[in-house]
Amino acid sequence: RHRSLVADILSRRTRLTVKEAEGGEKLQAGTVYIAPPNRHLLVNSDGRLALADSELVHFLRPSADLLFESVAASFRDRAIGVVLSGTGKDAAMGVTAIKSMGGTVLAQDPQGAEFPGMPEGAIAT
After folding, report:
1. In this structure, what DSSP letter does residue 111 have?
2. For the CA atoms of 107, 110, 116, 121, what is the dihedral angle to 10 degrees?
3. How many domains does the chain have?
């Protein structure tokens, strides 16, 4: 199994702890969790992380939509989603789920994104 470089890259840009998520792990304040390669990352209502090998979503695994939908269902109006550079429409349905529960979504300025598709989709919802 390969390790994602996303955690290493993000950790150079923030003081927050950035780590690859592990199944069963309890969410900790001040920590950014990155889905491992080829695994969906979900958040359960008890604040524990789950990893899934289920089908691709928008031809992707991991899927931001599945993550955001699980966060919306678990945390409702306390849900927060952050959409950074990425291609395609992944995250749009998840952003809608978070917003419909009264949560908050932050999106990178598409003009500063190497791949603006995901931030543009988030802003358009």
Report:
1. G
2. 50
3. 1
Q: For residue 110, give both structure tokens.
A: 């598409």
Residues sharing a CB contact under 8 Å with residue 20, sequence separation 6 or more, in sequence order = 3, 4, 7, 33, 34, 35, 36
The domain of 19 spans: 6-124
Question: What size, in residues, is the chain?
Answer: 125
**Tokens for 49?**
């992380």
**Residue 115 forms part of a structural domain:** yes
pLDDT one-digit tens code per residue, 66-108:
999 999 999 999 999 999 999 888 899 999 999 999 999 999 9
Q: What angle do CA 14, 15, 20 make, to 5 degrees?
A: 70
Single out the residue of 57, 62, 49, 58 nearest to residue 22, CA to CA. 49
The CATH number assigned to the domain holding 90 equals 3.40.50.180
For the entire predicted model, the pTM comes to 0.90
